[in-house]
Write a structure and sequence with these properties.
Helices cover about 15% and strands about 50% of the residues. The protein is built from 1 helix and 17 strands. It is elongated and about 95 Å long. The N and C termini lie far apart (about 105 Å).
Length: about 280
């Protein structure tokens, strides 16, 4: 077909050939699409790396010794050096939906090994004379997804100081074996979960305070330790084997009044299962 021909031949095959300008435009379209894909893919990779960097920074700036990623899990450690001049220590755990264990000793004041899928923590400390206080606090967390891996932190404490321990948590699985430590007080505040505590021989008086919502709480005390329980819970079930009920609705082990060292337990809860056993 000739340009400007007023009577084009409908059977002329040349009239269907693409012009050079159309070919150039199609090439540019393909190039632009490729660039868009590369930009989107590169942006996604940058975001993933940034998430890892943020998690690392949350911990590294707060005395984290080491940390590394293994797939979606972040493994890290926390520690606070021990000084023999420290006579009393306070440990505050502000946690969330995680598994917390404590049973072993360390030559540090505190050591913690963490396997984290969803959360990040910060360890901060301050000293006042012969006393040292530490806060182990959740800094960030993702939404709870049932069926997924749970974060877990395993703590170790130095057995030399006398400890004051406080736990503030959400839906938690907590297993604290405190038989290797000198504990003056233990406070637990949680919304739900499972709390298992094993206490050793008391100081002059070891006080345990537990306030939970819907939870299962088990406290094990030495069989030869004098112990008193004060319970304030209308909807909870309670089991206190080896204790005598008193007129004020408290429970005591035989010979409690005359004992020089005592454990006093205060419990308040919603719909909970509360047990105190003697081992």
């Amino acid at each position: 077909m000739e340009p400007g021909n007023p009577n084009p031949n409908p059977f002329d095959p040349d009239q269907f050939k693409p012009t050079r300008d159309k070919v150039k435009r199609s090439h540019w379209t393909v190039i632009i699409l490729i660039l868009v894909v590369l930009v989107i893919g590169g942006g996604w990779l940058v975001i993933q790396k940034a998430k890892q960097a943020i998690g690392w920074y949350h911990n590294k700036k707060h005395e984290v010794i080491e940390g590394n990623y293994s797939e979606k899990r972040f493994d890290t450690t926390y520690s606070q050096p021990f000084n023999p001049s420290i006579k009393t220590a306070k440990f505050i755990l502000n946690g969330g939906t995680s598994i917390y264990t404590l049973s072993d000793t360390t030559n540090q004041l505190l050591h913690a090994d963490a396997m984290l899928f969803h959360s990040r923590y910060a360890l901060n400390g301050h000293r006042e004379g012969s006393a040292y206080g530490m806060d182990f606090t959740m800094q960030s967390k993702s939404k709870t997804n049932f069926g997924r891996q749970s974060d877990s932190v395993n703590f170790k404490l130095n057995p030399a100081p006398v400890w004051d321990i406080s736990v503030n948590s959400g839906a938690t699985e907590l297993n604290f074996d405190l038989t290797k430590y000198k504990v003056s007080s233990l406070k637990i505040a949680g919304s739900a979960g499972s709390f298992n505590i094993k206490i050793g021989q008391p100081e002059a008086q070891t006080t345990i305070k537990v306030a939970v919502g819907a939870a299962e709480v088990t406290i094990n005390v030495p069989k030869n330790a004098a112990c008193r329980i004060e319970e304030h819970s209308a909807l909870s079930s309670a089991t206190f084997d080896g204790f005598d009920k008193k007129n004020d609705s408290s429970y005591e082990t035989p010979g409690y009044a005359a004992a020089s060292r005592k454990i006093v337990i205060h419990f308040s809860g919603g719909i909970s299962d509360f047990k105190v056993s003697r081992y």
